[in-house]
Write a structure and sequence with these properties.
103 residues, alpha/beta, 5-stranded mixed beta sheet, 3-stranded antiparallel beta sheet, 2 helices, 8 strands
Length: 103
């Protein structure tokens, strides 16, 4: 398998692997499908995590999470910035999610 070095490459590969939803965090859940579908922290697992560091600017740092929800049969992506641009709610919500031991 070819090594992926950019966030675009990772997101493209995840989309091909079925991670088609774009997750957005709300105060107590994640939403997808333009806000029409909500899933709570105990219904998701994090399957894969990819971290990207900026060459010279910490604002370019980000983490891409491949997330699945077996209960509803959906898979999607959540992107979290890093450094001072990190959304504190995102980190808080991610801490409550389970990491899948068999991605």
């Amino acid at each position: 398998m070819e090594e992926m070095t950019t966030m675009t490459e990772v997101i493209t590969a995840l989309r091909k692997d079925g991670y088609v939803e774009d997750f957005n965090l709300q105060q107590n859940c994640m939403q997808c499908r333009n806000g029409h579908f909500s899933v709570f922290h105990d219904e998701f697992v994090i399957d894969k995590v990819y971290r990207f560091e900026g060459d010279s600017d910490p604002a370019d740092e980000a983490t891409v999470y491949a997330i699945s929800c077996p209960k509803y049969g959906i898979k999607g992506i959540l992107v979290n910035g890093a450094g001072i641009y990190t959304d504190e709610l995102t980190d808080e919500m991610l801490e409550s999610l389970k990491r899948n031991p068999n991605p």
